[in-house]
Write a structure and sequence with these properties.
Structural class of chain A: alpha/beta
Strand order of the largest sheet of chain A: 4-3-2-5-6
Number of strands of chain A: 18
Number of strands of chain B: 7
Largest sheet of chain B: 7 strands, mixed
Largest interface: A-B, 56 and 43 residues
Helix content of chain A: 25-40%
Shape of chain B: globular
Radius of gyration of chain B: 15 Å
Mean pLDDT of chain B: 96
Helix content of chain B: 25-40%
Largest sheet of chain A: 5 strands, parallel
Distance between the termini of chain B: 26 Å
Strand content of chain B: 15-25%
Radius of gyration of chain A: 20 Å
Oligomer: heterodimer
Shape of chain A: globular
């Protein structure tokens, strides 16, 4: 069995086959402020007297936090009241992006995790079957703990070797998406094999599984997962989960990391991927380092190491993915180095990624971002362009005001 | 079951950011206002071009990106009776069924903007302009049931669970 089949079988209480639709109990679920109010509306339509949500259910206020306007303030109030009335955990403004917070404190290996956000697949980095759904699905899960799942086929991605200097997990996932394209894993799970990758790298890779259409992007849980959970004070949540040796995959892809280079995704689709060297010299207006893809401590450290003692030539926005990361970055002097280099530090959350607030681009402007999407209009202006890259490429490019291959300065 | 309407044709990889951009986030709790901006980054004034019962026709990977259910919600509110595409992104497809919005995976290459189409529940679509039939595979019985009940909320109410 694949890891996907194993986890779903355990929850379904019987061995499952691909293509089958099963009803499962959800271990952990969450709403965010973009999709949460609609879920609450649907929950009312269900006319259920008393809801029975999964034990680890969380409401996040991260997409537009703090609120930039009156109507979103009212949405936030609705979510806070809902969490309070139903005894559901609230992760309010400044706590961080839902996917990072879920990884830090809520996702367990072997869990089924459902969030009303497409990047819920991030939790696969810890060995959970984590997938995004819509507001109606979340309303039903909050009401009765259950959902329906179609058991999907899986593609195995074997990752071997160590990254060359200046090349990171983000480059790897951009390379993979460029290779299999935006619908290359539609209705399938991506199962990664890459023991050498640390948890932050795994989370970056799993996070972007949805960008090639995947339902989930899972890593087996191992000693590195245990270490990560231990540091968060929840070693007891650890369970080893891996696919069977004879698991059947519909496709196998092998990526040898030493052969990878820094990659960049061109507007307006994530799968439009070329080596950074092909775009070198393109003038940029804004650099954004953060998000559920690349706002973790290792990302901020890389950016600070490149920018320390120097000045950015672009507007530079930095958004730690969680309060915990923000605090670590302060302690380590990472925030100081970035601020001295000209960075504006944004409160932990989604920042400008979704185009609601904080750094909306002007007509004709170009942003180089460490986020996961560059769709037309994504950052709030359909007449602007977004390029996606690793934190190292972003920082090196900020330094020169134009797209720069980080290997030149590392 | 037979339904007919005019086609509004779009290309490949129509994202939910195109269907309803994030810059209208503040209107998400005001769906009537939100619906006025349906697909406007792809076709200016699109909402005014729709007649009740029309179809949206896309290429491959329709509805990719964000899980925002607002996308299929406002498509339905705008009076669109079905979305046809070569393939759908998973979350959009599921959301549409959950809302009782008909989604059909079929070869859309021969369909042009403004074509008059008739969808036959037995598994084919007739294009009046070309006179051709396009076949499609029916939904799984479970998904069909949700759709027939009018969406997942109605399904759960009727069957007291899933």
């Amino acid at each position: 069995m694949t890891l996907t089949q194993k986890i779903i079988s355990k929850k379904a209480g019987k061995p499952v086959k691909e293509g089958e639709i099963v009803i499962v109990e959800v271990d952990s679920c969450f709403l965010q402020d973009g999709t949460g109010p609609l879920a609450i509306k649907r929950l009312k339509e269900l006319e259920i007297e008393k809801i029975s949500p999964p034990k680890r259910s969380v409401v996040f206020i991260d997409h537009s936090s703090p609120s930039p306007n009156l109507s979103l303030s009212n949405d936030h109030k609705l979510l806070r009241d809902f969490a309070g009335e139903n005894n559901i955990i609230l992760s309010d403004i400044g706590e961080g992006v839902c996917h990072q917070r879920m990884a830090e404190d809520f996702v367990k290996p072997g869990d089924i995790v459902i969030g009303s956000d497409s990047h819920t697949c991030t939790g696969g980095g810890l060995g959970a079957f984590a997938t995004g759904m819509g507001s109606t699905d979340l309303a039903v899960i909050l009401a009765i703990k259950k959902t329906y799942l179609k058991v999907c086929e899986a593609i195995l991605v074997e990752i071997t070797g160590k990254f060359s200097k200046g090349v990171y997990a983000k480059d790897l996932i951009l390379y993979l998406i460029g290779k299999i394209k935006a619908d290359g894993a539609s209705y399938k799970a991506l199962e990664f094999k890459g023991k050498e990758l640390d948890i932050e790298e795994r989370l970056t890779i799993s996070n972007m599984a949805i960008e090639c259409g995947a339902k989930a992007g899972l890593f087996p849980s191992d000693e590195k997962t245990r270490e990560f959970l231990k540091k968060r004070g929840r070693e007891d949540d650890y369970l080893p989960f891996k696919p069977d040796n004879d698991a059947e995959y519909i496709e196998k892809i092998r990526i040898e990391t030493p052969s990878l280079v820094p990659y960049i995704s061109l507007p307006h689709s994530v799968d439009n991927v070329v080596p950074v060297s092909e775009k070198e010299g393109l003038k940029i207006d804004q650099v954004f380092i953060g998000t559920c893809t690349n706002g973790r401590i290792s990302d901020l450290r890389i950016a600070a190491s490149i920018l320390k003692g120097k000045k950015a030539k672009t507007r530079l926005l930095v958004c730690p993915a969680s309060r915990n990361i923000y605090l670590s970055a302060m302690k380590e002097g990472v925030i100081k180095a970035l601020v001295e280099a000209g960075a504006v530090i944004l409160p932990p959350g989604c920042g400008p990624c979704v185009g609601i607030h904080q750094g909306v681009l002007a007509d004709g402007e170009i942003c180089l971002s460490t986020a996961n999407r560059n769709f037309k209009g994504r950052m709030g202006n359909p007449n602007s362009e977004i390029y996606l890259c690793s934190p190292a490429t972003a920082a090196a490019s900020a330094l020169y005001g134009k797209i720069t291959d980080p290997r030149e300065i590392l | 079951m037979k339904i007919s309407g005019y086609s509004h044709k779009f290309g490949d990889d129509v994202s939910t950011d195109i269907i309803i951009p994030g810059r209208f986030f503040h209107l998400r709790s005001n769906l009537v206002e939100l619906a006025k901006h349906l697909m406007e980054d792809a076709k200016q004034g699109f909402i005014d071009k729709i007649k009740r019962g029309d179809f949206i026709v896309g290429g491959k990977n329709f509805g990719c990106g964000s899980s925002r259910e607002h996308a299929p919600t406002i498509i339905k509110m705008a009076g669109i009776k079905a979305v046809l595409a070569k393939s759908f992104a998973r979350i959009f497809f599921r959301n549409a069924i959950n809302l009782g919005l008909l989604v059909i995976e079929c070869d859309t290459d021969g369909i042009e903007d403004g074509d008059y189409l008739t969808i036959d529940g037995d598994g084919f679509i007739e294009n009046k302009r070309t006179g051709k039939r396009i076949e499609f595979v029916s939904l799984s019985p479970f998904m069909k049931k949700i759709l027939e009940d009018g969406g997942l909320v109605e399904y759960v109410k009727k069957h007291k669970g899933i």
